[in-house]
From TrEMBL:
It catalyses: Hydrolysis of terminal non-reducing beta-D-fructofuranoside residues in beta-D-fructofuranosides. InterPro entries: 6-hairpin_glycosidase_sf, 6hp_glycosidase-like_sf, Glyco_hydro_100. Belongs to the glycosyl hydrolase 100 family. This is Alkaline/neutral invertase. It comes from Lithospermum erythrorhizon (Purple gromwell). Keywords: Carbohydrate metabolism, Glycosidase, Hydrolase. Invertase that cleaves sucrose into glucose and fructose. GO terms for biological process: sucrose catabolic process. One of its GO terms (molecular function) is sucrose alpha-glucosidase activity. SUPFAM superfamilies: Six-hairpin glycosidases (SSF48208). It is an enzyme of class 3 (hydrolase). Its EC number is 3.2.1.26. It comes from the Eukaryota. Coiled coil: none annotated.
Length: 554
């Protein structure tokens, strides 16, 4: 989260926006949810099958994972359990509902934080796209999909706004980082202001917002069985616009997405410019999610074909060049440099002397992970939580690689989890490197905030990855740690220190995604079938032939 001034554009909610104005939006909100019996999952279809049979149409989705419920009553997850729920669960739901934001009487999102003890509000009183995802999943798992549908439609409407930073116009498909609902009690009207990066620190557009929107649209569809929303012309166009920003041809020689620093959850300068794993993993998952929802009509067919080609290249690239285990580390350590030919082994000309000493100590004989960044003559060996968890959920990681990532959690529990799950990045940069990488950022000091801080929101991603890989005991251990501190500490945004013992020095209390992340983790562990809305199975057609050994065999 970043602090900004209130220099956001204020556009009345009564004006026409793009192809869909508020009247159109209300009509969509009023549409009844359709319950559809679904046959074979589109997710299970191979890419080769899609590329051959695009004209055959889409198969139906799998059966819904969560039963539909209405209203804001007792959590459905508690009612399904034969045991007494943890007392934190009721407190968490109460806090989550206090964060709800309403537009014209309809819930459209949750505030980033409801910290009444903080003097500065900054932008924590807004609805952030990335922050709302765990809240949305919690409501879906509890059988309350309406707020998620409202959020998807409202942000889709905001996508149609003209977006400018100074004299430069942003791409049409850019989704907002956040929006704020303004209530006028005298006129009895609501209006919205949105931030597309023009008010953020560094003025960076949120690359991840569009990906999260697509992923959440699929989660809504999988959970409810309501195909009518994703099949609307507005949602179909919204997906195409987002992906057109990423699939356009240019000077790229890699299938990965080139990004600026601060374009994702790590929204301050932290040396992630280039091809950060967090963005690449979300990009991959958004591509696969969109592939499951786009119609193979005149407009969608071309987009589908481009997605299929990109997915093949992207999966091979990430699995081959971003993956690191002990054997690959040893190979890089022995690399020759300045190779010039198609037969070069060191394809990115990584200098072995650039490997930091901590990597050799950190890498166990059993385990592995996707490194933070790979670009010419640069390999960022830092471990990033979101990218590796999403790699498992989206099946970028092969089953062997997914197992190795979980092995790493077990082997390096103190470093990655400590006393509060979960390190956003490991290790922290400090000293001269901190000055160069962060620009002397006073908020990202060592083992704090984005620089090695521990973020409770990541608990839901860890739990989902644990369930998918058959390691629920890891998730239970992490949840136990969170339950010992989170409520007592007031649901902080993040924790500081090498083990995550200290409440973050600038952490907001009652941070909504810390609350929602805990609820989602608990509900998934209690009912693992919820995993289906946020997980994709491996596509055998994308599996590359890896020349290096996999650490799981060690």
């Amino acid at each position: 989260m970043v602090g900004v001034g209130m220099g956001l554009r204020n556009v009345s909610s009564h004006c026409s926006i793009s192809e869909m104005d508020d009247d159109d939006l209300l009509k969509l909100l009023d549409k009844p949810t359709l319950k559809i019996e679904r046959q074979r999952s589109f997710d299970e279809r191979s890419l080769s099958e899609l590329s051959i049979g695009l004209s055959r149409g889409l198969d139906h989705y799998e059966s819904a994972y969560s039963p539909g419920r209405s209203g804001f009553s007792t959590p459905a997850s508690s009612a399904r359990n034969s045991f007494e729920p943890h007392p934190m669960v009721a407190e968490a739901w109460e806090s989550l509902r206090r964060s709800l934001v309403y537009f014209r009487g309809q819930p459209v999102g949750t505030l980033a934080a409801v910290d009444h003890g903080s003097e500065e509000v900054l932008n924590y009183d807004q609805v952030f796209v990335r922050d709302f995802v765990p809240s949305a999943l919690a409501f879906l798992m509890n059988g309350e999909p309406d707020i998620v549908k409202n959020f998807l439609l409202k942000t889709l409407q905001l996508q149609g706004w003209e977006k400018r930073i100074d004299r430069f116009k942003l791409g049409e498909g850019v989704m907002p980082a956040s929006f704020k609902v303004l209530h006028d009690p005298e006129r009895k009207t609501d209006s919205i202001i949105a931030d597309f990066g023009e008010s953020a620190i560094g003025r960076v557009a949120p690359v991840d917002s569009g990906f999260w929107w697509i992923i959440l649209l699929r989660a809504y569809t999988k959970s409810t069985g309501d195909l009518s929303l994703s099949e609307t012309p507005e949602c179909q166009r919204g997906m195409r616009l987002i992906l057109s920003l990423c699939l356009s041809e240019g000077f790229d020689t890699f299938p990965t997405l080139l990004c600026a620093d601060g374009c994702s959850m790590i929204d301050r300068r932290m040396g992630i410019y280039g091809y950060p794993i967090d963005i690449q993993a979300l990009f991959f998952m958004a591509l696969r999610s969109a592939l499951a929802m786009l119609k193979p009509d005149a407009e969608g067919k071309e987009c589908i074909e481009r997605i299929v080609k990109r997915l093949h290249a992207l999966s091979f690239h990430l699995r081959s060049y971003f993956w690191l285990d002990f054997q690959q580390l040893n190979d890089i350590y022995r690399y020759k440099t300045e190779e010039y030919s198609h037969t070069a082994v060191n394809k990115f000309n990584v200098i072995p002397d650039s490997i930091s000493d901590w990597v050799f100590d950190f890498m166990p004989m059993r385990g592995g992970y996707f490194v933070g960044n790979v670009s010419p003559a640069r390999m960022d060996f830092r471990w990033f939580a979101l990218g590796n968890c999403i790699a498992i959920l989206s099946s970028i990681a092969t089953p062997d690689q997914a197992s190795a990532i979980m092995d790493l959690f077990e082997e390096r529990w103190e470093e990655l989890v400590g006393e509060m799950p979960l390190k956003i990045v490991y290790p922290a940069v400090e000293g001269h490197e901190w000055r160069i990488v962060t620009g002397c950022d006073p908020k990202n000091t060592r083992w704090s905030y984005h620089n090695g801080g521990s973020w409770p929101v990541l608990l839901w991603l860890l739990t989902a990855a644990c369930i998918k890989t058959g390691r629920p005991q890891i998730a239970r251990k992490a949840i136990d740690l969170a339950e010992a501190r989170l409520l007592k500490d007031g649901w902080p945004e993040y924790y500081d220190g090498t083990l995550g013992k200290l409440v973050g020095k600038q952490a907001r209390k009652y941070q909504t995604w810390s609350i929602a992340g805990y609820l989602v983790a608990k509900m998934m562990l209690e009912d693992p079938s919820h995993l289906g809305m946020i997980s994709l199975e491996e596509d055998k057609q994308m599996k590359p032939i890896l020349k290096r050994s996999s650490s799981w065999t060690c």
